[in-house]
Specification:
408 residues; mainly alpha; Growth Hormone, Chain: A; 0% strand
C-alpha cells in the first residue's frame, strides 16, 4: 500500500478533512430539512423514519463493499465518487411537490447513504495510511480531530438545515447546497492524490467479511452503541420537541445542532481526557483502551435511564431533556472516539480499507436498527420506551467490550 509522508501527508490529510467537512455539512442539513419539511406536511414519526431506511440500509452494503472497492481502486476515487453521488441525491429532491413522495425521497436517501459511507470510509481509512508509521499517539490524535470536527460540522449542518428551511424554503435550500458541494467536488478531483490507500495485492471479494475476532467483537459493540443513540435521537427526539414541547423548527434544529457541535468538540479532546490510552507501553495500549471504553460505556448506560425516570415523574421535561442530552453527548462522544481509535489500531495497514469498511458496516447496521426502532417505538410507546431500549443496547455494548478487555 502506498504511504505518504511529511508535508505531503499533511496536505492530503487537509484535503481529505476538507472534503469530509463539506460533505458532512450538507448531509446534516439535508437530514434536518427532510425531517422538519415532511413533519410540517403532516407526516408522522414512523413515515419520516421510513424515508431513512434505505439511507441506513445502503450504508450497510456500501461499507461492506466500499472497503473492498477502496483497496482496489484507491481511497481518493471512492471519496470523489461519494461526493458525486451526494450531488445526485440533492438533485433528485428538486422535483415538483407532486413527485416528492415518500418513495422518491427514500430513493434519494439511498443514494445519499451510499455517498456518506463511501466518504466516511475513505476519510477514516486514509488517516491510517497517512499517519507516521508506528505512532499510536499521532494516530489517536488525528482520528479524534477528524471525527470530532466532522461531528461539529454535522451539528452546524443541522442548524443550517433549520435556518435555510425557515429563510428560503425547501427547494432553494437544496440548490444552495448543490452549488457549494459541487465546488468542493471539483477541487477534490483536481488535488486529491491518486491511488491513496490502494493495496499492492488487490483483495478478493471473499475477503470483505472480517475474520479477525477482535474486529468482529468491536464491530458488534459499535452496532449496539449507535443503535442506542439513534433509537431516541434520530426521529423520536426532534418530533417530541416539536409536538410535545411546542418548539419551533429553528429551535429544534438549533438545539440538536448545538448538541452535535458539543459532541464533536468532546471527541476532539478525548485524547486529552484519556491520555493514558496512548501513553502506556505499546503492548498494553489496546488492553487499556478496551478497559477505558468499558468504563465509559457503563457510565453511558446510566444516562438514558436517568432521563427516562425524569420524564416519567414529570421533573420539568424540557430541563431533563436538555441536561440529560448534554451528559449523554459528552459520555457518548468519548466512547465513539475511543472506538474510532481502536478500529484503526486493530486494522492491518495493507487491509485497512477492508477492516474499516467492515467495522462501519456494523456502524451503519446500528443506525438502521436505531432509526427503525426510533420511529416505531416512539409511535407505539413514546419517548420513555425509546430511552429504556437505549439503556439495554448500551448494556450490550458494555458486555462485549468487557470480553474484549479480558482477552486483549
Amino acid at each position: 500500500m502506498q504511504h505518504a509522508s511529511g508535508d505531503s501527508s499533511l496536505r492530503q490529510y487537509a484535503i481529505i478533512t476538507g472534503n469530509y467537512w463539506a460533505f458532512t455539512l450538507t448531509d446534516g442539513a439535508l437530514r434536518m430539512l427532510v425531517v422538519l419539511h415532511f413533519h410540517s406536511l403532516g407526516y408522522n414519526a414512523l413515515q419520516i423514519a421510513l424515508m431513512f431506511i434505505f439511507y441506513e440500509l445502503f450504508g450497510v452494503v456500501t461499507n461492506l463493499l466500499g472497503g473492498y472497492l477502496g483497496a482496489r481502486i484507491g481511497l481518493n476515487r471512492t471519496m470523489n465518487i461519494g461526493l458525486g453521488l451526494q450531488l445526485l441525491a440533492l438533485s433528485m429532491l428538486l422535483v415538483g411537490p407532486n413527485f416528492l413522495t415518500v418513495v422518491w425521497v427514500m430513493a434519494a436517501q439511498a443514494i445519499s447513504g451510499i455517498a456518506k459511507d463511501l466518504n466516511k470510509m475513505s476519510a477514516k481509512s486514509a488517516v491510517k495510511v497517512l499517519r507516521p508509521a508506528q505512532n499510536s499517539t499521532k494516530l489517536y490524535r488525528w482520528v479524534a480531530l477528524l471525527t470530532g470536527s466532522k461531528n461539529a460540522l454535522k451539528g452546524g449542518g443541522f442548524f443550517l438545515g433549520g435556518v435555510l428551511l425557515s429563510l428560503y424554503g425547501f427547494y432553494t435550500s437544496i440548490v444552495i447546497m448543490l452549488i457549494g458541494l459541487g465546488a468542493v467536488w471539483l477541487l477534490s478531483l483536481k488535488y486529491l492524490k491518486a491511488d491513496l490507500g490502494r493495496s499492492k495485492q488487490p483483495p478478493k471479494i471473499t475477503q470483505i467479511l472480517s475474520k479477525n475476532t477482535a474486529i468482529n467483537r468491536l464491530s458488534s459493540a459499535r452496532l449496539c452503541l449507535f443503535a442506542a443513540r439513534d433509537v431516541w435521537f434520530v426521529v423520536a427526539l426532534p418530533v417530541y420537541l416539536a409536538q410535545q414541547l411546542g418548539w419551533a423548527f429553528w429551535q429544534v434544529s438549533g438545539f440538536l445542532a448545538a448538541w452535535i457541535v458539543g459532541y464533536g468538540l468532546v471527541q476532539m479532546i478525548t485524547p486529552v481526557l484519556t491520555k493514558k490510552v496512548h501513553h502506556t507501553h505499546p503492548s498494553g495500549t489496546l488492553r487499556y483502551a478496551h478497559q477505558t471504553a468499558f468504563r465509559w460505556q457503563v457510565a453511558l448506560l446510566l444516562v438514558p435511564l436517568a432521563i427516562a425516570f425524569g420524564l416519567h415523574f414529570y421533573w420539568h421535561n424540557a430541563a431533563v431533556l436538555v441536561l440529560g442530552l448534554a451528559i449523554f453527548g459528552f459520555v457518548f462522544a468519548v466512547n465513539s472516539s475511543l472506538h474510532s481509535y481502536l478500529i484503526l489500531a486493530l486494522a492491518k495497514t495493507d487491509e485497512v480499507a477492508l477492516d474499516v469498511g467492515f467495522y462501519y458496516m456494523a456502524n451503519a447496521a446500528g443506525r438502521l436498527l436505531g432509526t427503525l426502532l426510533s420511529g416505531w417505538v416512539f409511535l407505539q410507546f413514546g419517548l420513555i420506551a425509546c430511552l429504556v431500549l437505549s439503556t439495554i443496547l448500551v448494556s450490550g455494548a458494555a458486555y462485549i467490550t468487557r470480553t474484549m478487555a479480558r482477552s486483549a
